[in-house]
Amino acid sequence: MQLRWFSSWGWVYRPVSWQGYGLVLLAALFCLNVFVAVDRHSHSASDTLYGIFPSVVPTLILLYWVASKTSGSRTA
What we know:
By secondary structure, the chain is mainly alpha-helical. It has helices at 18-40, 45-69, and strands spanning 6-9, 12-15. The chain has a domain at 31-71. It is built from 2 helices and 2 strands; from the N terminus they run ββαα. The protein has a two-stranded antiparallel ribbon. Helix 1 (18-40) runs antiparallel to helix 2. The chain is elongated and about 45 Å long.
């Protein structure tokens, strides 16, 4: 029995179960927290972008990887 947390939707994945929605919510809250913490001490927009990049991009890559593994499709 395979649980489907996400469903393929073009190039992205959308959550279809409470586990998927929870994972997306956790990732969004983490990214928002990183943005607020970095932006508090930044002097420009580029400072903010350089500050959030090392945390936000790996988080989104990990979310995409989990979504691809739990989508139930065998193409990836």
